[in-house]
Amino acid sequence: MISRLAHKWVLITGASSGFGAAAALAFAREGCKVLLGARRADRLAQVASDATRAGAGVAVYQVLDVSKTSSVVAFADWVRTHTSALDVLVNNAGGALGMDTVAEGRDEDWEAMFQTNVLGVLRMTRQMIPFLAKAPGSTLLNIGSIAGRVAYEGGSAYCGAKAAELQITRALRLELCGTGIRVGTLDPGMAETEFSIVRFKGDAERAKKVYAGVNPLVAEDVAEAMVWMASRPPHVCIDEMIIKATDQAAIHKVYRRP
Fold first, then answer.
1. How many CB atoms lie within 10 A of CB 165?
2. CB 34 within 8 A of CB 52
3. pLDDT (tens place) for every residue of the chain, 258 residues total
4. Hey, what's the torsion of the CAs at 223, 225, 228, 230, to 10 degrees?
5. Angle between helices 120-132 and 156-175 (to 10 degrees)
6. What are the residue ranges of helices labelled H in 136-181?
7. Inter-helix orientation angle 219-230/18-29, to 10°
8. Which of 86, 244, 242 has the alpha carbon at shortest distance from 166?
9. pLDDT by residue (tens digit) across 44-88?
10. I need a surface site. Which of 19, 28, 58, 75 has the fewest CB within 10 A?
11. pTM of the model
12. Where are the beta strands (DSSP E) in 1-152?
């Protein structure tokens, strides 16, 4: 059976690792043409190569830093050299830095989180709406977090940034009503990727403790959900999806094996 997504153009930000890299492969297996952006060119090249082997009709990449308007504009110009219409935009670039309290927080961490998770989503969406509008039934998918719905100690800036992503998504759904562009957010819970290593600034041991005794989500689980959301019939919009590991009942309630 031919996938509804076969031959569709899919753009994924933050595609060099984690959810983004897994999404590149998942959409490639559906026969999509994937446009990949992230800051690490060497990692992007590998993901594009893997996507090609997985079945992508096209798998190309360009360096992208969503925290800089000039980079986003240049990326949009690059997209235009490949296609004038975009079927799926996955705003995945983002992440957390540190777990400091507000009293001990650092400006540079706060600013980086809001630049990527909030302003980056706004910048990319602003540039890509004209592409999405040319593809009936297109999907604008923002990757959020359950942290945007429930706060926790040490997560003030990250929770705030992801709460902003959720409200941006909801506002976009209102603003784009009638255009045919479907707008949704996918909000994962505990997932073992490079997320915690980045958050703890390379401290692998500390990152490993986050998942100790837990069977967490993996990137492929989240990527599979992205594909499902984007492959619904054009009249169906999955507004908001929360996906968590069975071991995680809530942010503060996680089952850990001895």
1. 25
2. no
3. 779 999 999 999 999 999 999 999 999 999 999 999 999 999 999 999 999 999 999 999 999 999 999 999 999 999 999 999 999 999 999 999 999 999 999 999 999 999 999 999 999 999 999 999 999 899 999 999 999 999 999 999 999 999 999 999 999 999 999 999 999 999 999 999 888 788 878 878 888 888 999 999 999 999 999 999 999 999 999 999 999 999 999 999 999 999
4. -70
5. 20
6. 156-175
7. 50
8. 242
9. 999 999 999 999 999 999 999 999 999 999 999 999 999 999 999
10. 58
11. 0.96
12. 9-13, 33-38, 58-63, 88-91, 139-143
Helix (H) or strand (E) holding 80: helix 69-80
Residue 218's contacts (CB-CB under 8 Å, 6 or more residues apart) are 22, 191, 192, 193
- Give the distance, in angstroms, between the CA of residue 15 and the centroid of all CA atoms in the same chain: 8
Strand segments (E) across the chain: 9-13, 33-38, 58-63, 88-91, 139-143, 182-188, 240-243, 248-250, 253-254
- 61: three-class secondary structure by DSSP: strand
DSSP reduced 3-state for 31: coil
Closest C-alpha to 198, from 113, 111, 96 = 96
Return the closest-CA partner of residue 92 out of 42, 150, 26. 26
Average per-residue pLDDT in the chain? 96
Whole-angstrom CA distances from 38 to 7, 43, 188, 231 are: 23, 9, 20, 24
**What is the number of residues in the chain?**
258
Catalytic residue positions?
Answer: 158
